[in-house]
């Protein structure tokens, strides 16, 4: 994101969009379009990589831990 010349407020705004995807409140495709419109200097591949990293991300760390008894 540094190469795109984003300032702290812009990074925070993008992080908010990514958090909405992680929380399943915003579809990844909508987030991609929103980021592309708001941050046209950010490379599309970078946006896709960022969003791919949050697909299926569990907001609650305990949700990804195995249950007692291995189930």
Summarize it.
The protein contains three helices and no strands.
Summarize the SSE layout with pairings.
Blueprint: H1 8-22, H2 28-38, H3 44-54
Helix pairs in contact: 1-2, 2-3
Summarize the biggest pleated sheet: none
Rg over C-alpha atoms, rounded to the nearest angstrom:
15 Å
Question: N-to-C SSE series?
Answer: HHH
Tell me the structural class: mainly alpha
Number of helices: 3
Mean pLDDT: 82
Total strand count, please?
Answer: 0
Report the end-to-end length measured between terminal Cα atoms: 39 Å
Dominant shape: globular
Q: Oligomeric state of the chains?
A: single chain
Sheet-strand content, in percent, reads under 5%
Low-pLDDT segments, ≥5 res: none
Helix percent reads 40-55%
Question: Any descriptors?
Answer:
mainly alpha; single chain; globular; 71 residues
Describe the fold and architecture.
The structure is a single chain. This protein is mainly alpha-helical and 71 residues long. It is built from 3 helices and no strands. α2 runs antiparallel to α3. The radius of gyration is 15 Å and the shape is globular. The termini are far apart. The model has no long low-confidence stretch (mean pLDDT 82).
